[in-house]
Specification:
Two copies of one chain form a homodimer. Chain A has about 150 residues and is α+β, with helices and mostly antiparallel strands. Chain A folds into two domains: about 90 residues, Orthogonal Bundle (Arc Repressor Mutant, subunit A); about 60 residues, Ferric-uptake regulator, C-terminal dimerisarion domain (Dna Ligase, domain 1). The first copy, chain A, has seven helices and six strands, in the order ααβααββαββαβα. A three-stranded antiparallel sheet of chain A has the order 1-3-2. In chain A, strand 4 and strand 5 form a beta hairpin. In chain A, helix 1 packs across helix 2. The N and C termini of chain A lie far apart (about 40 Å). Chains A and B meet through helix 6 and strand 6 of A and helix 6 and strand 6 of B. Strand 6 of chain A pairs antiparallel with strand 6 of chain B. Chain A binds a DNA duplex (25 and 25 nucleotides) through helix 4.
Chain lengths: ~150, ~150
DNA sequence: ATGAGTGCAAAGGCTTTGCATTAGG
DNA sequence: CCTAATGCAAAGCCTTTGCACTCAT
């Protein structure tokens, strides 16, 4: 296991315990799965990668991890919810969402752009009265596979 | 009725008919409701503003309008789906989403920023192999009301 | 022992769908 | 007339929940 991964679990465990819950092996595995995936995973995929843990338990554990600030549920227009590690664990990023197959890929922008974006958000917050705490920028398009298939 | 509104219905009707369906008075009313709202409306709100049209019919009509490219379903983390007119009818815009009450408000960025954003997206599309067709930038924060209440 | 986690099954809640009826072209 | 739209009720589907059992502390 990499140093980064070890670090991840230490942080995750701390948060889960701070939330008054246990860092079970099941939860550890879920964090591991999401970390390895590197992009938001739909529930069936999580279920499939965790040999033996029933669906209801997966939901409950994900809810626990979400409450502890380790996992967040990503909203998509698919049937199943997708889950990823929170940004303060993985770093700020954006999503490329395939409008055809639903695949989601993590991506980063040039840092300069991210700054410009922040500035715009601040301006917007002031103009509208919203206290902006975060943003969510998703790109919708066709992934390589679907683009090739439809060509 | 404003000239813009008349224009809107003409376009909407054309699309619905092109999709092989009728521009019913019920559908016309739905378009009217969404146009007046000026921001994505959750289903209960739509139902409430349309005196007499059963829930299943509202769903069916929204689906028809969506298929015709007049309406689009907005993804949120709320229980109910939200609906708005498509961007080519209302113009490109973004959403301010209140993380507390779920309120959604439409907003625009400075046009210069929008250009920068497009450039970044083009660069990203090239780098990742995604054919980006659109983007969706939502700001999550506290709306005026909720910010005041929690202060 | 004592509370948390798990499995199983049932319930929930939004959305969709089948079917008979009604209305629009 | 003929097809589409509507209402009503039932079904679907993801997700949540109740309850008894097991496991870890």
């Amino acid at each position: 296991m990499s140093a980064r991964s070890r670090e991840l679990h230490v942080t995750a465990e701390a948060r889960v315990r701070a939330a008054g819950q246990r860092y079970t092996s099941a939860r550890r595995q879920l964090v591991e799965i999401l970390d390895r995936a590197g992009s938001p995973l739909p529930l069936p995929a999580i279920l499939g990668r965790h040999g033996d843990l029933k669906q209801s338990s997966v939901y409950r554990n994900l809810a626990a991890l979400e409450q502890a600030g380790v996992v967040r549920r990503v909203i998509t227009d698919e049937d199943f919810g997708r889950y990823e590690l929170t940004e303060d664990l993985t770093g700020h990023h954006h999503h490329l969402v395939c409008s055809n197959c639903g695949a989601v890929e993590d991506v980063d922008f040039a840092s300069g752009f991210e700054d410009t974006l922040e500035a715009q958000l601040a301006e917007l917050a002031e103009r509208t009265g919203f206290s902006t705490v975060s943003h969510r920028l998703d790109l919708i398009g066709l992934c390589r596979t679907c683009a090739a298939a439809s060509a």
